[in-house]
Every structure is written in C-alpha cells, then in structure tokens.
C-alpha cells in the first residue's frame, strides 16, 4: 500500500512539474512550425536568376550568409530601390517574377531569402533572426549599392510585413508597403488558433508587434489587403492602417485572397508604382 501511495505521489509531482514544461515546449514547436516554412534550394528545378538580375550574398551581424537577387530596373537611373521581404513559405525563386514586374516599372528590386530559405545559410529560429536578415539587406543596399535611404522602399508580404515594420521603425526609409500583413502575433493567434486561450499567448517566442512599431515610422505607408484573405483576416490590415502615421493609404481589394500582387492585376501594380513615385520625390 505504501509503495502504491509513493508511486501515486511521484505521478502527481511529475504531472505538476513536467506538465507545464510539456505545454511550453509543445506550444513553442507548434508556433515555429506554423510561422516559418522554409523551402531550400533545389538544383533540379532551379531555372536561374531572373533576366536582368544578379545573384548576391549578404552577411548578417552573426556572420550568416543569406542569398538575394538584385533585379535591375528596366530604365536607368531607376526611380527607386525596393527591398522586398516575402512570406513565410517558399523562397525567392517563387517571387522572381514579381521582381521583374516591379523592375519593368522602373525600380531596382532586392529579393531576400531569410536564413534557412533557398540557398541562404543557417536556420531561422525566431523573429530576431528575421530582423537581423532585414538589417543586413538594408545595410547592403545603403553601404554597398549606395542607395539613399530617402529613395529606398521597404515592401513586405505576409510574414515579410513584420520585417518591414520593424526595419522601418528603426532605420530611415523613403516609404513602406505592407501587403497581407498581421498587426501582431497575438491578434492573429486569437483568430487563427482560437482554441488557445489568449492568456497563454505570453508563452510564444515571437511577438511581431507591427502595429505598435508603425507608431515609430515617419514616412508614407501603404497598407494593402485582400478582403477575402483566409490566412490573415482583412481586419489585421485595417489595424495596421489605423496604427500608421500620416501620410498613409489603404487598399482593400474585393474578391482577392492572400496573394494580392499575383491576383489583383495591372491596376494594383500601377497603384503601387504611383505611390512609390509620389513618396520618393
């Protein structure tokens, strides 16, 4: 009987001690899996860099080499330089066409792969790695390419909007474009993983507090969102817009989902082009 009681006592203690640890690490693993979905370089399907572009390597402050494509403008000199941060899945090979479309409008474009994405070295572990990659790309354009901050446009899609908002809140840029973005990790989790109590959100590693950071951004901001976005609700885009300082512009595209640029058509591209040209005068 005493042995049974001791075992029961040890079981209860184990549950009390190990239960929170299992919950903590389980939630952290789940968070990472849904936040970062890198696709590495595939030599068999690699079609080469887009026409008019260079394959470049950039070193982060932690000496991790990340890969990027610098797509040259179709006109010289370019109207502005766009630093583009893609979403949480795939790599820059999926957005080479986008760089070419923007280059066709007279912009130089740097498409960046985060750590562990495409040919980039390392493994991304959280938002601080993402911000380090963004800083390295920014420094490359300013220090190596000689781009003036006033003529640099930072453009992010989905997860890339968090890198955009963070970078622009700390460094001078000419304009910001946030497409299909989230206001914060906690707000998005409230919608996407509603089964998780909000009071447990503090266990998350990543905060992605883009709406709060926009208060520190003092340049023109364009927020675009598809009204039918099933991944990041349009309400998140509205929150970003509400948090941004003037001058700012909001584009809500009816009938369009998460991939605004790819489905909204030439009119959307023309609107982006006009916004950039007006912002970097």
- CATH homologous superfamily title: Alpha/Beta hydrolase fold, catalytic domain
Strand content: 15-25%
Total number of distinct structural domains: 1
Please report the distance between the alpha carbons of the first and last residues: 84 Å
Structural class, from helix and strand content?
alpha/beta
Radius of gyration: 21 Å
- Bin the helical content: 25-40%
Supply the CATH class.
Alpha Beta
What overall geometry do the principal axes of the alpha carbons give?
A: globular
Number of helices: 9
Task: Tell how many strands the DSSP assignment holds.
Answer: 10
Strand adjacency order, main sheet: 2-3-6-4-7-8-9-10
CATH architecture title: 3-Layer(aba) Sandwich
CATH topology: Rossmann fold
Report on this model:
The chain has an eight-stranded mixed β-sheet with strand order 2-3-6-4-7-8-9-10, sandwiched between helices. A two-stranded parallel sheet has the order 1-5. A hairpin with a 5-residue loop joins strand 2 (53-59) and strand 3. The model is unreliable at 21-26 (pLDDT under 50). The protein starts with a helix and ends with a helix. The protein is 40% helix and 19% strand. It has a single domain (36-279), classed as Alpha/Beta hydrolase fold, catalytic domain (Rossmann fold, 3-Layer(aba) Sandwich). With 281 residues, the protein is of the alpha/beta class. The protein contains nine helices and ten strands. Helix 3 (127-144) crosses helix 4.
């Amino acid at each position: 009987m005493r042995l049974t009681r001791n075992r029961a006592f040890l079981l209860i203690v184990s549950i009390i001690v190990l239960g929170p640890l299992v919950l903590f690490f389980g939630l952290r693993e789940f968070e990472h899996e849904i936040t970062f979905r890198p696709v590495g370089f595939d030599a068999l399907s690699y079609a080469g860099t887009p026409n008019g572009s260079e394959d470049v390597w950039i070193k982060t402050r932690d000496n991790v080499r990340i890969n990027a494509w610098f797509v040259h403008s179709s006109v010289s000199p370019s109207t502005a330089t766009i630093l583009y941060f893609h979403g949480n899945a795939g790599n820059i090979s999926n957005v080479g066409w986008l760089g070419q479309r923007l280059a066709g409008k007279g912009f130089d474009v740097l498409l960046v792969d985060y750590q562990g994405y495409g040919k980039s070295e390392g493994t991304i572990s959280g938002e601080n790695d993402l911000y380090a990659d963004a800083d390295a790309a920014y420094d490359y354009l300013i220090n190596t390419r000689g781009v003036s901050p006033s003529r640099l446009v930072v453009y992010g899609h989905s997860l890339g909007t968090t890198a955009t908002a963070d970078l622009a809140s700390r460094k001078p840029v000419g304009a910001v474009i946030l497409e299909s973005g989230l206001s914060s990790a906690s707000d998005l989790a409230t919608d996407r993983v509603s089964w998780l109590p909000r009071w447990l959100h503090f266990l998350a590693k990543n905060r992605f507090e883009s709406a709060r950071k926009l208060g520190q951004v003092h340049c023109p901001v364009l927020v675009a969102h598809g009204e039918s976005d099933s991944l990041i609700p349009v309400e998140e885009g509205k929150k970003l817009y509400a948090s941004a300082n003037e001058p700012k512009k909001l584009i809500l595209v009816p009938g369009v989902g998460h991939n605004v640029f790819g489905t909204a058509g030439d009119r959307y591209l023309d609107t982006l082009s006009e916004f950039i040209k007006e912002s970097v005068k």
